[in-house]
Amino acid sequence: MKRKITLKQIARELDVSISTVSKALRNSEEISADTIEKVQAFAKLYNYKPNNIALSLKNRRTKKIGVIIPEIVHHFFSNVIKGIEKVANKHGYNVIVALSNESFDKEVLNMEMLANGSIDGFILSISKETLMLKDYHHFRETINQGMPIVMFDRVVNEINCDKVIVDDFDGAKNAVKIMIDGGSKHIGIITTKDYVSVGSLRTNGYLSALQLSGITASDELVLKVEDGLDTEENSDKLYKTIQSLFDNNPQMDGVFAVNELFALIAMKVAHERGIKIPEQMQVIGFTNGVLSKYATPSLTTVSQHAQQIGEQSAYLLIERLEKDEDLEEDGWKTVIVKTDVVERDSTK
Amino acid sequence: MKRKITLKQIARELDVSISTVSKALRNSEEISADTIEKVQAFAKLYNYKPNNIALSLKNRRTKKIGVIIPEIVHHFFSNVIKGIEKVANKHGYNVIVALSNESFDKEVLNMEMLANGSIDGFILSISKETLMLKDYHHFRETINQGMPIVMFDRVVNEINCDKVIVDDFDGAKNAVKIMIDGGSKHIGIITTKDYVSVGSLRTNGYLSALQLSGITASDELVLKVEDGLDTEENSDKLYKTIQSLFDNNPQMDGVFAVNELFALIAMKVAHERGIKIPEQMQVIGFTNGVLSKYATPSLTTVSQHAQQIGEQSAYLLIERLEKDEDLEEDGWKTVIVKTDVVERDSTK
DNA sequence: GACATGACCGAAAACGTTTTCGTGTTGAAA
DNA sequence: TTTCAACACGAAAACGTTTTCGGTCATGTC
């Protein structure tokens, strides 16, 4: 098995020094035209590419950004990454993705693997388990060692760093308001446990919208889905949980779900029970993915502009990376990206 | 901004040599218990972690696997990655993901970025654009430079490497047979252009099933969707294309779609036209993701055992990586992972 | 007292780059 | 012939590790 060719090999082959080869390849003024041509021809022939590892070691920077996301399958994260890549590539950075699968251990592990030299900075969204455990030591350590972090979507106040978030509260409030305007009186919400920051923010937005319209909230109508139920294995349990929301609230005429999956299942349950959407029940989801568009009926959603979130995150990180090293430490920014409600056929 | 602590700094601080520190940290016999304790305590205090870049350079291996996939959002790829990670982690490897977004240029770019030192080997699924252009030079070059590649799902005969594929032909054949057994006489297929290998294999399976049952195939019933229509921006065009399949074939009573999205849209179109599923039309998709399960009605699919595909790919790659370098070159393996039909409510 | 034996530690090379500084060889000016 | 710049190139250090090969002691043995 052949190895990649190195400067040293080229040098030996052409009977010049390593330095000469290096300079020739970068068209240095110091090297004669003859030598430059000779070296470049040889390098091209053997398809020489500088070894990135050696370069990283020498420059103490990799020009790579590490992205850690909880789940790869959500359309939201996919678009965030698209946004990150767009900005990163424009600035000469590459993007590397690792997954936490919503697990604390994997998050820590993957961060350690990348932090020790593989990348220059992180863009990440915190896993559910981490949020539940409230153990943020790995973020602190990473930052302490001089590696910047930008958090998006699922952020946490306890850590000082740049952040990009969505106006979850207002987004939820607007969505619920639309349902109220459409005539819904008994609106249920399918959300996550409160430790997921965006979940609780959206829940509060929901409550606020109800209050503004003089509707008294009912605990019965609030379903906080336990963690781990949104995996393939536990899908039946999730299904039953949502069915019970319908069982407990026969008068329910609207559902606000904090993600696409929850909304889809709610529509499926409604369909099974002969509840007509949107006539007898309106449904709105959060996150504007493909599922919403192709659901039957198509789902009204709160769109998050995921790509924009990615772009903003990349900007913040690169700005910090390119800034003069030991300048002022603080001045962490938090960028808020607005949401829009995309109305489709699941609302009136 | 603090930098990560290095062996050299520890050595200076403790007034010993770098070698001593290195050995002490690895509990070498050569070092006295006193020194070991002193060094380890200091290292722990300052949270010393060896610099992976330096290690990679020295060892000429990174213990990292690079995965390149066309699209992050498909449940299929998500599960493949899960499988890869499972096996990789068990063998002490880490996994790094990069996206091609179905683009040839990004595929080449990302491979180059990872190939030059960042990883030990690739596991990848070829982008549609690459398949269309039939330009495989980047795969050849990578392999020539001694970096092994394992291809999965979308593979290509022109390249010699280990491969993991699905029995697309048989899977499609079985699926169509189920619809025929269920009474469908005019079965349409929504597939991709032929250069996507799995697309054409599935098309052939469909044709074979028809032939076996004495049904003559009709060109009208075969819809080969153009590339690029399955992105968010072009979703309307895709929609219209599928509508035209219905328009051209009013007698159609069955649809076989080569992916989840196509199947979902077909169901949506059927629903709009008042066609009852499965009574008046049966639908089967390929790939068993969440969408199928939660569609209304739930979708019968050909399940691909994505995780198993990932595991097999990782096994093949690691086996090759750990093998004695300059042993026999060839003997490329192709592993076939079987499919199963998961029957749900969209078939009788 | 000479010598071997361990115990403990350090110097240096190597991985592949880039870059700074130095050095030798020209040809021309003095 | 000497001197000096310009030109073309090489040596070496540095990035952070691991590992091989010695080296320096003190101790024990005869």
Unreliable residue stretches of chain A: none
Helix content of chain A: 40-55%
Across the major sheet of chain A, the strand order is 2-1-3-4-5-11
Q: Using CB atoms under 8 Å apart, which protein chain pair has the greatest interface?
A: A-B, 62 and 62 residues
Name the CATH superfamily assignment of the largest domain in chain A: Response regulator
User: Kindly, what is the distance between the CA atoms of the first and last residues of chain A, rounded to a whole number of angstroms?
Assistant: 65 Å
Question: Could you please describe the fold and organization of this structure?
Answer:
The structure is a homodimer of 348-residue chains. Chain A is elongated, with a radius of gyration of 26 Å. In chain A, strands 2-1-3-4-5-11 form a six-stranded parallel β-sheet, with helices on both faces. A six-stranded mixed β-sheet of chain A has the order 7-6-8-9-10-12, with helices on both faces. Chain A has helices at residues 7-14, 18-25, 33-45, 52-59, 75-90, 104-115, 128-133, 137-144, 168-181, 197-212, 235-248, 260-272, 290-294, 306-322, and strands at residues 64-69, 94-99, 121-124, 149-152, 162-166, 187-192, 222-225, 254-257, 282-286, 300-303, 334-337, 340-342. Chain A is an alpha/beta fold. In chain A, 45% of the residues lie in helices and 16% in strands. The mean pLDDT of chain A is 92. The first copy, chain A, folds into three domains: 7-50, no CATH class; 62-166 and 307-336, Rossmann fold (3-Layer(aba) Sandwich); 168-304, Response regulator (Rossmann fold). In chain A, helix 1 (7-14) packs across helix 2 (18-25), helix 5 packs parallel to helix 14 (306-322) and helix 9 (168-181) packs parallel to helix 10 (197-212). Chain A has 14 helices and twelve strands. At the A-B interface, helix 4, helix 5, strand 2, helix 6 and helix 12 of A face helix 4, helix 5, strand 2, helix 6 and helix 12 of B. Chain B binds a DNA duplex (30 and 30 nucleotides) through residues 6-8, 16-20, 22-23, 26, 29-32, 35, 50-51, 53-60, 117. Chains A, B: Pfam families: LacI, Peripla_BP_3. Chains A, B: Residues 5-59 form the HTH lacI-type domain.
